[in-house]
Amino acid sequence: MKLTDALEEKFNDQITLEFEASLVYRQLAIEMEIRDLPGIAAWLRHQADEEIVHANKWIDHLSDRDNHPKIGASAAPKVDVTTVLDVFEVALEHERRVSDSIRDLYRAANEDIDSKSLIQWFVNEQVEEEATVSEIVGRLKLIDGDGPGLLRLDEELGSRPTRTTEA
């Protein structure tokens, strides 16, 4: 069953937002790379890749339903960070923006039974994403700029298994 034009537009907006999230995470990774925190940079790159996987899920759903997936215009991410805490606060803010958009899409697709399972998957995923980033923010506040604590967190986050954007 094909989506309505209005719902297709909302799905396409979500696709664009997922790609924007990927760019934000990639820029944050760059910020950590130049500060010699390779583990945190790797974690952020993994998040960037995961956002592309998310965009692909939305794209596949639209394609499978004979709709036309489109990536909208995106500006380069405006990331202004000076500390690792800043990095994760930016990440958390963006995750919350994505969550709000998915909730809006959930409400808009209320009558579209064929989209419910996909959107519910994303609702659950965003709860997990926000919790993970929020926990890192909390830990960074506990570390409070302590070098050894920051290096330990860098090592821990760098141990995350990697996947590709086709996962």
Structural key phrases:
Ferritin-like_diiron, oxidoreductase, iron storage, 167 residues, mainly alpha, ferrous iron binding, Ferritin, 74% helix
CATH topology: Ferritin
SS summary, helix count: 5
For the record, the CATH class is: Mainly Alpha
Helix content: over 70%
Termini gap: 26 Å
What oligomeric assembly is this protein in? single chain
Number of strands: 0
Q: Supply the CATH superfamily name.
A: Ferritin, core subunit, four-helix bundle
**Cα gyration radius (Å):** 17 Å
Task: Report the biggest beta sheet as strand number plus sense, adding barrel if it closes.
Answer: none
- Strand share of the residues? under 5%
Order of helices and strands: HHHHH
The tally of domains stands at 1
Tell the overall outline: elongated
Note poorly predicted spans.
none
What structural class should be given to the helix and strand makeup? mainly alpha
Overall mean confidence score, pLDDT: 94
